[in-house]
Amino acid sequence: MTDETSEFIRPFPALTPAQRYHLDVFGYVVVENTLSTDEVGTLLEAMQQLQADLEAAGEGAFVRGCRFSAHHPHHSHLAHILEAHPAIYDYLTHPRLVGLVEELVGGTVRLEESEAVINSRAPDSAWDGHYGFHTGTRPDIGTYVENGLYHCTFVKTLTNLTDLGPDDPVNQPEYIQALTLCAAKSGIVDAMQEFQSSRVGRTPEQIREDNEQFIELADCLRGKGWTVSDPIPDADGSLGPGEDFASPDGDLAIDDIRDCISERNLSDGGDEQ
């Protein structure tokens, strides 16, 4: 018999409609007050104790499975923190965080990495405007749309345990620009919004006609050198992009799509006259 008190219950939906929309448009979302004050305090204390234990152990040492991958007077990077402290394990398996990630991935998830950064502002340093922020997988490989929702197969959660001030680099406009650069360059946002808005409130006959047009569109794009796999139906029977849907240079070239709509006299989603 299952002990109901031991069930791993996470919220669904974990994001509000406004948060989900912001994530779909910009590729990130800030969720404030995800952890309680007590959880933040316990986790912060555990991280500070872990740093002190690693410093005492000496260069290259492991403490409860964790190590320094970088250690400087004003910057420490701690790798593999999963088993280093019960409070850290509780954070990494927090139902609220797991629920957020599963909603975006679209199913069950697994932990790929666990790490922490402990920073303090160096008095003689100035931010040079560079972050070195990696963008993960390409949109046409690591993302998909299902039932009108945008999903990513790789998700990273970042939690601040101390308050950030207006002068911190993370609050600078350039940082937000870096976060949204991938979406802006790929054109995935425009394509997703056009794709979703065209599929609202359709009759079965309209779905059939749209499916025929989508097949026409796919054939046209293949003629322009695109890699287009077989379309996939959703719960309503509407065909949408399959696993591969990208132009020869790997991007989602909106101009090619619009050219095909024009060349083959396909509907652009507007009312017919």
User: Average pLDDT, to the nearest integer?
Assistant: 79
The shape is elongated
Amount of beta strand: 5-15%
Widest sheet: strand order?
A: 1-2-3
Write down the secondary-structure element order. Answer: HHEEHHEHEEHHHEEEEH
Report the major sheet: 3 strands, antiparallel
Q: What class do helices, strands and sheet pairing give?
A: alpha+beta
Helix content: 25-40%
Number of helices: 9
Low-confidence stretches: 268-273
Oligomer: single chain
Q: State the end-to-end distance.
A: 63 Å
Number of domains: 2
Number of strands: 9
Nearest-angstrom radius of gyration? 23 Å
Describe this structure in words.
With 273 residues, the chain is an alpha+beta fold. The protein has two domains: 4-186, no CATH class; 198-263, no CATH class. The protein contains nine helices and nine strands. The strands form four sheets. A three-stranded antiparallel beta sheet has the order 1-2-3, with helices on one face. The longest helix is centred in the N-terminal third of the chain and has 21 residues, at 37-57. It starts with 16 loop residues before the first helix and ends in a 10-residue tail after the last helix. The model is unreliable at 268-273 (pLDDT under 50).
